[in-house]
Amino acid sequence: MLRRPLPALAAAALLALVRASPARAQGQEREAASADALAFEDAAQYLRGALLAIRSGRAPQATELLERAESRLLTRAAPAPVAQRPVARGPVGDIGAARAAVARNDLAAAEPLAQRALAEVERRRRARRRPGP
Predict the structure, then answer these.
(1) What pTM did the predictor assign?
(2) Which of 22, 51, 116, 122 has a CA 20 to 30 Å removed from the CA of 5?
(3) Domain locations along the chain
(4) % of the chain residues with pLDDT over 90
């Protein structure tokens, strides 16, 4: 399994934010508030955060961040017939499988799935940026 380290400063900031949760919030609300504080803008950032949470053994936060990454990928502009078909492959499928692994507390299985989803999201981003012929 290939692990790409986060830049040290980003990892430290992310870990501090992941650990900082409002004292009064409970359960899922606490995880949502923690993810809101991160203010990520794209699926890749949420996936990087989820990987850090998985590696830190923080299953509830990993779940929240995986859900947000999945939502970012599912929010897409597509023609009506295409938009009505569920997405079950590619990074969305990997994220769903990673969420299922986290739900059964199998973080070791979740990590490579999230890593593969991140690699595919980044590959697609690079492909979009390449100038045409």
Answers:
(1) 0.68
(2) 22
(3) 42-129
(4) 45
CA distance 38 to 15: 10
Buried b (16+ CB within 10 A) or exposed e, 13-36: ebbebbeebeeeeeeeebbbebbe
CA distance 28 to 25: 8
CATH architecture of the domain with range 42-129: Up-down Bundle (1.20)
Cα–Cα nearest to 76, from 124, 39, 7: 124
Q: What is the pLDDT of residues 87-128, one digit of tens each?
A: 667 899 999 999 999 999 999 999 999 999 999 999 988 888
Task: Name the percent of the chain in helix, strand, coil, to the closest 5.
Answer: 70, 0, 30
Q: How far apart are the first and last CA of the chain?
A: 34
CA angle centred on 6, ends 63 and 127, rounded to 5°: 85
Q: 87-107 burial by CB neighbour count: b if 16+ within 10 A, else e? A: beeebbbbbbbbbebbeeeeb
Instruction: Report the alpha-carbon distance of residue 117 to residue 133 in Å, rounded.
Output: 28
Q: Which residue in 103, 104, 74 sits closest to 88, CA to CA?
A: 74
